[in-house]
Amino acid sequence: MTEFDLVYAGDTSGSGYFRIPSLLTLRNSDGSLTDTVIAVQDVRFSGFGDSPANIDSGIRISHDAGRTFDEHRLLSPYAFRDVADGERHKSDSASFIDCSLFQNYETGRLFVTVNMFPWGGGIMGGNVEAGTPFVEKDGETVMLLTATTAAVDLIESGKVPDSEKIWNSAPSLSDVRQLGTYYAKKISEYPVYQTDASGAIRFDENGYALLKEPFKREIYDENGRYTKFFLNERYEVCYDDGTDRGIILKVEQIGGDETVPMNAAFKYSIFQMFRTSYNFLIYSDDKGQTWSDPINLTGMIQKPTENVTYQIASPGTGLYVDRGPYKGRVMFACYTNASPDGTVKAEVPVAVWSDDNGKTWTRGETLTDLGDTVKMSESVLTVMPDGNIRIFSRTGSSRVGTALSLDGGKTWQTAQKITKIYNSGSSGCQITVFNYPDKIDGCDALILASPQSLVARRNGTVWVGLIRDDSGNEIDWTPTKVHDGAYAYSCAAPLAIYSERGFPAVGLYAELEGNRMHYGILSFDDLHH
């Protein structure tokens, strides 16, 4: 019906490299489709590689049910300016990678998760450390930091830092590998914003969201003494001079000529974050026009263990549970590189959810009975007719994997591979799955897209799955090949564009040959013959 490259070299994002599509149609409170469609993707300034790299997130929004989109722009809460845009200095950059979109239908709140790595960090480069910087002190979760020599000198001298000074000295490698002797408080608290009648967040002339009251994540030493430094709502390093925002320290942009606020994830920061993976989240209450500052969920949902090196939020889409005993729950999937007890030394998925519109988050147990799937990493959650949660995953078995939870994502039954749905060979590939909004032939239905190949990421195929029983143990899958060539990561969503039989179209956003981020609208009548 319609197809085009949704993002491309030379577009208004300023980048020439993109990956990891996420696509979501917003819903009304009754679950009906709106005309607002959100597309989010990695904007990779330093090439196509994963972190460590110079990676931000980009966004395009459609207001006509996915027929056209506005200009591509950086999703500002997920964009660092520590390194100049370009292909140099990628190992010096902090990064955001692998977004996932989902919405609470009842409240309208839109969420985006992402994985954040401090400078130089990334699982593909092996630059993550085992353990967690989040510990309990006096009944509160705090985040451990390392103070560089520059920070210690300021703390011990009691000097007020020069508000005009530009910091440009790098820490030692040990500063990002140790758990630190300083810590920041209020890690699990959220700032409260000033908004207008539409729910849009109001901003000041410097681009900071206006707060209803000051918000300071105060930094203390190991003896519990306040250092007079704090992290603000953006994790920028500030000196407490008694004013609401304090003095925001500045750093020299690496490879560029800008001066930018010092973030604790930056190479030139005087306080260093532990080098691990962080699960961040932002939200919007005005259909993606304005966004909260990044919320670090890691301390709430990461279970410390020496066996787990990373916990990665899966790209694509999360889930709103619209039926059953967990109705109203918003969820997304993560995966770790091992089970917490170390008995499973393979990537395993885990569900994360909120029952209070994103204020607090809970992590379930990892799926450890992998059955015949070998591993299950990047995953998507769906809800079955009886309200139980079913996960679909990238595996190491050359097939898509699935498992069922009977307790809202807390625990999982034995996983199994879906024999007829391929997943591009032993390394696997991210897939996309969503609950189709209409019944088909009297059945609830799923739409799944995956590369239908046993040897490579190619042969993009969309599957219509008719759910024949309450929990999805019996699903009849019917394929339609939509692309013969290279086909990698993808994300699909229902669109408020209706066929002659009255069924919503399917929007498909996929990585194709030539590193194209391609978008197409598929009539459901063509997918369900």
What does this structure look like?
It is a single chain. With 529 residues, the chain is mainly beta. It is built from 4 helices and 36 strands. The chain has helices at residues 149-157, 174-177, 298-301, 524-527, and strands at residues 2-7, 18-27, 33-44, 55-62, 73-74, 95-103, 110-117, 134-137, 140-147, 166-167, 182-184, 217-221, 226-231, 237-239, 247-248, 250-252, 259-261, 271-273, 278-284, 295-296, 311-313, 316-317, 319-320, 330-336, 348-354, 362-363, 376-383, 389-395, 399-405, 416-422, 432-435, 445-451, 458-467, 475-498, 504-512, 516-522. Strand 14 (237-239) and strand 15 form a beta hairpin.
How much helix is in the residues? under 10%
**Overall strand count:** 36
Structural class: mainly beta
Count of helix runs: 4
What form results from the Cα inertia axes? Answer: globular
CATH architecture of the largest domain: 6 Propeller
What layout of secondary structure does this protein have?
Elements: E1 2-7, E2 18-27, E3 33-44, E4 55-62, E5 73-74, E6 95-103, E7 110-117, E8 134-137, E9 140-147, H1 149-157, E10 166-167, H2 174-177, E11 182-184, E12 217-221, E13 226-231, E14 237-239, E15 247-248, E16 250-252, E17 259-261, E18 271-273, E19 278-284, E20 295-296, H3 298-301, E21 311-313, E22 316-317, E23 319-320, E24 330-336, E25 348-354, E26 362-363, E27 376-383, E28 389-395, E29 399-405, E30 416-422, E31 432-435, E32 445-451, E33 458-467, E34 475-498, E35 504-512, E36 516-522, H4 524-527
